[in-house]
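Posting for a labmate who doesn't have an account.
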Amino acid sequence: MSFIADQQTLEDLNLLGKYKQHSIFSLFNTVKTAGAEKLLMEMFRMPLTDPEAINRRSAIFRYFQSRQLPFPFSNEQFSAIDDYLSDSGGKYYLTVLLALGRKKLLGAVVRDEKYQNTRISLQQTIKLINDSKIFINELSNDNDHPFYDELLAAKKILNNPDLGELETWQNSGLSLMKMAKYEHLLKRKMQADLLLVIQTFYKLDLYISVANLAREKGFCYANAFPKEAGILKAAALRHPGIKRAVGNPVFFNHGNNMIFLTGANMAGKSTFMKALAINVYLAHMGFPVAADNMAFSVKDGIYTSINVPDNLNLGYSHFYAEVLRVKKVAEEVSSGKSLVVIFDELFKGTNVKDAYDATLAVTTAFSEYEECLFIISTHIIEAGEVLQERNNIQMLYLPTLMQNNIPAYTYQLQPGISGDRHGMMIIEKEGILELLR
């Protein structure tokens, strides 16, 4: 089963988008080749739900982070060889020789550039094959890592005796017959094997780039456990896209499956919830996470409700859009799925009395589903005073400190329910009432 994260969740967490400002994808997109970028996008779109597969991928990243390697090739080099090999050659050597002969004749008679372009592409391909052989021979000396089998397969292909002559081609030049021989070898006899090598190098680009980013950012790798373990714990968990972000501890299990979060506006509630959801998503990808350490049981997916818009075309008010979102999540939770659920300020689109009643009822109902993990934030602190009697709900808040009547924020979680009511103080500080007098 594939990991669930619907469009609303992807938008709330700003996960995807090559050109989207501050997206998590763009943070990790430090690869050099277009092929690696395509693989990166596939991994972002398809998080894993098998703990063994997750741990194997994270182990590969750990290995390359320990090696601290550069990826010594450019996108132009691999785009050229990819294009060259993807264009199938003739089935027989003689067919290739005749085709090249025609190109050469046309080049001499009507100044057609196809023969010269083929020659240049072949030279570029041979050089990259030789350089790749040197790189992978050095890299594959270490056999104690989970990517070794793929490296060994690529090494065997590149060290095929049929490719040996390519190492000395510059000494003898590229005659028409040599070009035909090499074209037939590369585009026909060994095409499938060499395309496999290219895919291995795209993976190398991705693993090396992401591992180097993890070392630079001080990220760690989460340990994945089977769903039945029912845990999620982390130290100094923080938002991966924020420089010098404040970290917080997190702990969930079956008997402690909900956080009821309070705090003033600007205290950091939304950022904390996004940080947790983003890191859970990255952990299911086997990617580095922004924490000092992290362990988690695999989940079926994530649902968030952070920036739910109204829908004027369908006649939905903001409140009704919120209700529909809660209904969608309730359907998924009640179907037996094991989910991480984030609700940022439930029912803020209605009056205080309805918001209180709805927050209390919905939070109580969701808390019964111990296979799921929830964070629910609200300004309705009165609901928290009732809910704190439930043993499986953690009451946490983000404090506001007043310094000379100016609010300051620690962004550090504290046990309990916030009593901060500084809204009017901030309004007065900004001089709004004086402007209106």
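Reply:
Got it, the structure tokens are right above this. The chain has a mean pLDDT of 86.
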